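pinning this so it doesn't scroll away 📌
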Amino acid sequence: MSASASRARLRELQQALETKTAAINDFASKRLRDETGRGHFVVSKEDHAEYLKLINEANEIKGLIDAEKKALGLYEYLDQPERDPVAGVIAAQQARGMQYKSLSQAFIESEAYQAMKAAGFRGDVRGVAEFNQGLYSFETKDIFTMSAGTHTTPAFGHGQDVGISERQRRTNRVRDLFPAESTTANILYGIRQTGFTNNAAVTPERTAQNGGPATGGPTDVFGRLPQSAFQFTPYTAPIVEIGHYVLVHKNTLADENRLRGIIERDLIDGVKLSEDYEILFGDGVGENMLGLTQTPGIQLYTGLPTDKKTAQIRRAMTKAILAYYEPNGVVLHPLDFEDIELEEDKTGAYRVAVSVAIGAEKRVWRLNVVDTPAMLEGKFLIGSWGYGAKLYDREQVTVQVSTEHATGFTDGYVTIKASERVGLAVDRPESFVYGTFTPYDENGGGGA
């Protein structure tokens, strides 16, 4: 869309707002009347709903006008030339008595061309002739290259380096569900709660010796509180290092200023994706992190075929709630979250209300959502992030550059490395439920 089209659209919206405002005034004068004589308006439900509808429609048009005004500013900015047009510069400067030679004429009159002509355009005649014509700017030069009696000229105009497109979307990370925690240790240890049997009950002041009702006699004893049971097990968790590196020639970094930033960003994203996988599925072998889905005591859930994916998540939440933990986040594969956002009810309306227009947070059943390719498609993990498990940063992601790797100094390349040190502590595995989505079947697999 151009600036002129945007202005036309703005005029249409303003006319629409004027029409809608007139309709509001007309409605108010005819339908909102003081029938009591005491300054009280009597309005039917239908009239009240219609009035509110007119007001909302007017506000929507006003919002579109505000947005279109901002868009117009962008279009006007983009429509402006990057610099003054060449014809305008030449005309203005010629008016001040400045004379310009054509590029071909300037080349023919140059010393380089005259030397080539004197040699009969034979022999090893090489050189570069530069002419500052000031056609594009006072810093741009038109360059001709001569070699063995021939020359080439560039096309009119100038080139522009459009750079490298950067990634638009900031990927969600599993760590986003954890509150910030840090440590200076190189190993974590603690006590993991694996079970709780709650036998709390009302206890009478006195009972019979056999535990029955008190008789009131001398053989009665004081009531004894029931005993509950907890199960704990000690554990240790390593602080693991996650990282990788790339080799880049120093000239590439010098020539492409933006390239290093993009490389650093992608290196960091690579570390974070591996971190996601370790948090979810690390096997705990050797220096590997013990992931949440591999931790003993975590709950499992398989969805019902009569439930859609949103309902299956909600039922998995109940398992955590029944274990006395309040889940606050869910990790999904992007394709599964796509299915959830596109779920429709019987009227065709989307079940999950996420307004991209206002940048609403991703939520399903009050749970913060992280959609990451690190999660297996068809699986999901809900839990009490930050309570049932904590993520500790020993060293946050750092990017380092060095020429002191292998033959980097003599070969002229640099090594760019990204790494972090992090540890996962899971105190209450029951607060996490690892779920499996079951394909939806309206008949529950029982046929038509």
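📌 and the second one:
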Amino acid sequence: MLKVRVIPCLDVRGGRVVKGVRFQNLKDSGDPVEAAARYEAEGADELVILDVSATPEGRGHQRETVEGVRSVLSVPLTVGGGVRAVSDARALLEAGADKVGVNTAAVRRPELLNDLAEEFGRQCTVLALDAARREDGKPGWEVVITSGRERTGRDAVEWAAEAEALGAGEILLTSWDRDGTKLGFDLELTSAVAARVSCPIIASGGVATPEHMAEGAEAGATAVLAASIFHERTFSVAQVKTVMAARGVPVRKTTGVDA
């Protein structure tokens, strides 16, 4: 049986880890290199770095942050934020990323996903999909971009399916409504996307407990991601895996801290 991956996320700005609610009111949460080393020691299966201010500020990802994290990390690393072209992705891969996430630029120019998949392979091409419940009273979710600053009106589930067809090999699915709220994943959203695509899905947004992580896997995610509970040391990666395994969710065994 496929093991569910547990992935800490480092939202970064200006070379520091930050965390807020719905990407707003960001507070400093430490040094990304130190955090990465700790998470790997705890048994993290992968790591994600998202530069949350790169797109709103109209710049690329800060490459030195990626290089620093890669220097202490042996597990796979996905990097997103500010990727607008193949050249941006190449720079991040050369800096040490294994996979590159793209969000806003792919919504504005969907063929970018095909360009990335053709150049680097589907396994390196991750769609970072931020979804919010529709505000017009209709059911479903719409895609939001520029770190949540812009609602597109585009159906999130349909976009996930289109992105997979274009070349996305994985989808990092974040509930905009749940991000930073500690209310747990939007399980309905996770299930809806899982039913439409065959590629791996990383559930993100709202985790407060290991039980929330297990629920994401039970809803169809093949990986579960969290930030605050790890940054604030509420739970270690190893503790999360222990709870998930007890609920019958298949996870990779770890000899990490607090295992």
